[in-house]
Amino acid sequence: MLSRVRYLVTGAAGFIGSSLCRRLVAEGSEVVGLDDLSTGSLDALVGLPELRFEETDVRDTEAVARAAWGCDVVLHHAAMTSVQRSMAEPEVFTDVNVRGTLNVLLAAERTSAGVVLASSSSVYGEQQHYPVTEDMEPRPHSPYAATKLAGEGFCRAWWRRFDVPTVSLRYFNVYGPGQRPGSPYSAVIPRFISSCLGSREPVIYGDGYQARDFTFLEDVVEANLLAARLPETVRGMAVNIGGGGSPTTVNELLSMIGQLTGATPRPMFEPARAGDIRRSEADISRAKSVFGFEPKVSIEDGLRRTVDWFRRHHRQAIGDPEPVRPRSKGRGPSSTSTS
Fold first, then answer.
1. Considering the domain 6-174+214-241 in this protein, what is its CATH number?
2. Which of 7, 144, 171, 185 is labelled catalytic?
3. Which of 56-60, 180-184, 211-215 has the lowest mean pLDDT?
4. Is 144 a catalytic residue?
């Protein structure tokens, strides 16, 4: 009888990580979850008694190695997030995202595990042609994007020099139920839903014609499980994980959310934020050919399901935004929300 696959999920108490843990446990896998709980919450893992949870900072080399011991695959989602926040705190972003990824790779090397890295479409920056393909030159516009690209480089090196199977998934604007709006750095979809349900004026940064390739959470979870097989043809490489449809402008997005919530939003327009790009659109041909990845949830269906979740969790999900803090060093969040 074959033994079950054992996974380590870093950033396990975050938006994507907790969904991965639930899916893996439901499928009968052994799962170790690692998170420092600086932004993630154990509430996201309620009802998973089978999960072994380690409250650990991903920068703790030995603690990460202990958590990874005996695991076959590491799904690495522990990271500091937000393009805008990285402008204010580049040192801690580099410390958490780059050193944390190095620690995961060192642990994987010790235990002969494979690594699936949560990277980001932000590594592309602005391009002249869309959709973007993995062979285009990365043009990161922010410290956050630079740390994700550095993590990909470490993964590539560990495959080439140390035979650690790796693959980096470049996520395009992940959204879905459970994504929280209560921060100035939050992704646009939970912020818009929160504003519409709370009868507040939503804020649009820029003119609203910037377009994004929104990717539903369930499709991202599926991509991770497919990537965890680590086919030899893609080891050491980066792979786009997008929604599969045409990009949606921010103005169109707000209109759709207004219809779903029954609101008539009157947005406030603020200057474009530093590090934001004009367009993101993924060519997912590589993911289809090497993984058999095929996104199943359209933007219309995904938004409907996300709004339904917010309605059910209205009071818990909607809160006052946190103040923007000046640049400082401290504990870095371990949950991932790519933009």
1. 3.40.50.720
2. 144
3. 180-184
4. yes
